[in-house]
Amino acid sequence: MTAVDLRVAQRPNAPMTTYRYDEYDAAFVSERVAEFREQVRRRLAGALTEEEFRPFRLMNGLYLQLHAYMLRVAIPYGTLTARQMRRLADIADRWDKGYGHFTTRQNLQYNWPKLVDTPDILESLAEVEMHAIQTSGNCIRNVTADHFAGVAPDEIEDPRPTAEFLRQWSSLHSEFSFLPRKFKIAVTGAEHDRAAILVHDIGLRIVKNDAGEIGYQVVVGGGLGRSPFIGKVVGNFVPREDLLAFLEAILRVYNRFGRRDNKYKARVKILVHERGIDEIRAAVEAEFAAMDRSPFAHDSVEFERIAAFFAPPPYDSLPATSASMRAAKLESPAFSNFVDVNVGAHKIPGYAIVTVSLKPIGGVPGDATSDQMRVLADASERFGFGELRVSHEQNIILPHVKQDDLFALWRMLDAAGLATANAGLVSDIISCPGLDYCSLATARSIPIAQAISKRFSDMSRQRRIGKLGVKISGCINACGHHHVGAIGILGLEKKGQESYQITLGGDPTFSASIGEILGPGVTAEQVPDVVEHLVDYYLAEREEGEAFIDTWRRIGHARFKDVLRREGEDGADI
Amino acid sequence: MPVFKHPQILIASNLTDGEVVFLGSSGWERDHRRARVARKADEATELETLGKRDISANRVVDVYLADVEIGSDGAPTPLHYREKMRVKGPSVRLDLGKQADEGAL
Questions:
Q1: Contact between residue A469 and residue A214 where contact means Cβ atoms under 8 Å apart
Q2: Band (B101; pLDDT cuts 50, 70, 90)
Q3: ipTM score here?
């Protein structure tokens, strides 16, 4: 028995590997590919019915959508290497239609794979240490994290070692593979929440106590979908030593009491809502006290070993601000705008975090062609230690770029149609695939995003408006996070037509709030007009330094409703 | 039994590649204009029976009837916008799906 096998046998649910595959991981993923290949063969031969096969394909991330199958590839905590990004591009070219869609779960979806090709695709992914396991089904899904992890100046601790620890704990966890419903965990280690942890089944916030010890504030019962809830604190400071056992206790309570009689009431958010956080906390603490915690005892050596894989790259010692970048900004207004909007502060002097927008004006949010993926891979190797991130906002992050290199990077991105300077602005819209692809959707969402993007195509106007989160979902499942959009848009069916419900005041950060409905639904054609009226009203009413959400909170929802009503009476087409 | 209001066609997804297909007079068609149309309830029931047969034969999955209207050329067109999307392809990528093929729909 190898050392890995021995560890597996002794601690079946404990972390076992680093995020870079060891022989156990490689063998395990390879075996899963072979297993699925055989399942596909049996399905095509008629030995398995669709009813029998469906759980198998979903366990491997393969859905049947509106026009074709769809394969969802896991990107743990949104981190990719250049090699992996290139492989995603190669797969798009060889087995799909030359593009991929980056999702709000930091994953990637192919929209056109054939069932018969899927085992080969999974084998190709396995060669670069990727898979599609647990991207579907009632299990713990891909663990997401702050896309600025490890480089943000406001960070207490890099959340990725924790996320990787949880990924290993939750992967094929025998007790939690058939939960009442799917289960999503997000982690942040920063003072500002960029991972929307309060709207996840479990949100983890890395905190430091008065003694300077690292622990976790644990939030449970957040979620979007048809019943949106902000998560509630179930553990205010859980020491790292207790984290796995504490999460194990939460999942056990959920697995025991979560409703299996009604899929619409089966998420943990409903359990927390119906029982109340105090009862849930008591149940979790009772389980934690009663359980055998030894299998989940913290292995600090293992944690440190994992953390070592996320060690900072070999940064150069640089001045805090690059003179060449400043000079280039003066030379090129377009570059200057890119830096001002898409480039963020880095914890290391002389470096920057670059957000590459996948939201060109009038484009499909989150889509990237295979050629663009290769450019991103090349750019990360040339300028950023070969690392990329996928944000839940459906953009790509280059987390370690020298300020001195920003101009060259910008030119490279610009040539590939990847230099849209709109990160966080009104055209940086989160949108689910909607009825253009999704079999669950009740209305299209991408064309709405495109129409709004075109309406605000004047980039100087966008910059004047400032940060504004517009989020669009094509059905009540809320994959486009509309509930937490400062302006949220939900596509529904009304009397056989697509209809759009507008909400205001959503916020996915630590000051989280669920948007409030503005009024009756509007047609697709009316949506850009409504958004424009709302934005104009905000611009007229805002005070110094206020973002849209701040003004909305200060003056109240009713004022925004009133202005639309008045505009409508004046004959505006809204 | 639901009231039969409109002519109907039988829609499914092809097992091997997931493409949307329509039951025609001599098997599954990839062009909805070649779909066999049920104009009465018993004809719709017959389509469903054939669909179930081909589910069992592992040819198709996700089979259901969709309401259509009949054009002047005699070809059926779905009434609901969801199925209108399925017979063409993504409205945001006219280069993809059935609409991208020769004789665009």
A1: no
A2: confident
A3: 0.96
